[in-house]
Amino acid sequence: MSKRILKLVQSDDLRRSKSDKLLAHYIERNIAELPFETARSIAQRLQVSPMTVGRYLRRMGFDGLDELKSELRHGSSNPAWQVKGRVDRLQQDRQEGKLLAGLIQQQIDNLSQIYAIASAPEWQQTIDALIGASEVYVAAYQNVRGIAQYFASQLSYTRPRVQFVDGLNGTYAELLDGSVEGRLLFLHDVRRFSAKARPLALEARRAGVKVVLLTDEFCPWGPEVSDICLIVPGSHGPLWDGAATMTAVMDLMLSNIIVVLGDEVSERVDTLTRLQDVFGDFET
Question: What are the GO MF terms of this UniProt record (predicted)?
């Protein structure tokens, strides 16, 4: 796919004006980094307007930068860590004060999309499923395992029978043995996707377990293996895949559940607080 894009920007039709040449040269030299750019950031780097960038992309045949990124994603796999080969530019950006500003802007752009996610039908379906399940099992892998464990721990303050499953027993039998009806698997996976995530979702559905998948825009199989699929913007940061957006989504889910359950949560927190005092895990 990147070869097709390179061929486009190297054509005479897309190199007519001064701004055309600026954009063509930029895309040609930075095609591997385009998934981590925005139209605004490209415009700032080239000192042109975002509208100029948008018009150029439409002449290329793309309805905005997201559509171009989508084609690049389907044509190649992007690693989660993007430092190699970019140190000189990143150092320059840091010295010019652009690196931190770019990181902050990317977080803001991603977080601004959470409202749309929380307004989608899948959001309320997820909240209802997390509340109504007889048991909730949370699973995640690799570098997102930690925030999924955090979610499971926090969710256990709102309702009983919540468990993080790590699969170290080799069977996930606690989830898949069929001994209790109404179970829910809350599966969290983002690129680079775990080899276990998709088989676990399929086995869970085969066992009659409802599957909620929280994933990012790079996931090609999410809706196929889940009952409810929540898709969050993928990380496009210039360094690594951060967890701020996913953590914010999980915190918002927990807040939503607390509001719905109301006094039930208060009673459970009181019980857990008493038990914490009994076993002395926290300072008074």
Answer: carbohydrate derivative binding; DNA binding; DNA-binding transcription factor activity
| Helix then strand then coil, % of the chain, to nearest 5 | 60, 10, 30
Q: Is there a contact between 26 and 45 (Cβ–Cβ < 8 Å)?
A: yes
86, 135, 236 from 30: Cα distances, Å = 10, 48, 14
Domain count, the chain: 2
Name residue 76's amino acid: S
Q: Are residues 132 and 248 in the same domain?
A: yes
Residue 247: CB atoms within 10 Å: 15
Let me know whether 137 and 211 are in one domain.
yes
Residue 48 structural domain: 2-76
Omega cis (within 30) before 198: no
Cβ neighbours, 10 Å, residue 283: 4
pTM attached to this predicted model = 0.67
Say which CATH number the domain at 45 has: 1.10.10.10
* Digit-coded pLDDT (tens) for 20-39: 999 998 888 887 777 777 88
Contacts of 102 (CB under 8 A, 6+ apart): 41, 93, 238
